[in-house]
């Protein structure tokens, strides 16, 4: 069952990245329109981000749980090494290519601002216009991951307090957004689905048991509730999107692995392969959907096909190699100190399972 869950989660990654591509084509590309389809896609634009954030928070929490159970302690430095090797090298390649293209006049010159992405500030600063517009999600993730291992350590010390803090965080943020609409409150709102995913990881055994006991029809009910809540307007809708929707998404993610037809689709090899390569595809799809003057449907079909192929190739040849290099770097760090200290050593250590979140 555990293998099915991982494959299903890869499938959800694929679903999210395909939703991103469809949304960007409909909203920003040269073939965009203003019909009812585009209106529907726009109304659910942030849903794909929430799904991905809940999944990432959950998988990150599971990674920390595995490490804590195996060695009794969480090695914070190892966690940051994994994140660095997973995220930074592909990002640097993307940023360098975009800056070069902008300086050569192939795309809008303002795209040079994409360099700000390496500082993870794209959710508070412009990062090169459209070409870097998607990187706000990566910035929000990495900002949250600064705190994630410390939240996990605090959970091991005081589980009830951590649970209470994470459970009430969405309601607090929703109230803050309604009261102020300040930039800081809107940034905090981005952390809510990540926090919900992390909280679900703390109680994953109970979550999976309850989801397995729920009827298959509950998956459709959860999806329908999300579709009804998401485009609604008003204060109650803000609260529902912040508090209720991430919980419904977490239930859907878990329940989908227990409903055979859904699990078979999500676990299918082509879908899972796209999911595993989703980070590279995520980076480059922004260029593949760029509103080049005169570009038509044939151009975008070709560019997106090339983007997906290049993403899969990048995962196989580049990202997997980085993961092996990350393993060596983690072995060098040695075992953690009393809480999260580290000391280098020459011999390789048994390593925790690789992190599977983006």
UniProtKB/TrEMBL annotation:
InterPro entries: Acyl_transf_3_dom, Acyltransferase_3. GO terms for molecular function: acyltransferase activity. The keyword Disulfide bond does not apply. The chain crosses the membrane at residues 12-31, 43-64, 84-102, 135-155, 162-179, 185-203, 297-318. It comes from the Bacteria. Signal peptide: none annotated. Residues 7-313 form the Acyltransferase domain. Keywords: Acyltransferase, Membrane, Transferase, Transmembrane, Transmembrane helix. Pfam families: Acyl_transf_3. This is Acyltransferase. It comes from Alsobacter ponti. The lineage of its organism: Bacteria, Pseudomonadati, Pseudomonadota, Alphaproteobacteria, Hyphomicrobiales.
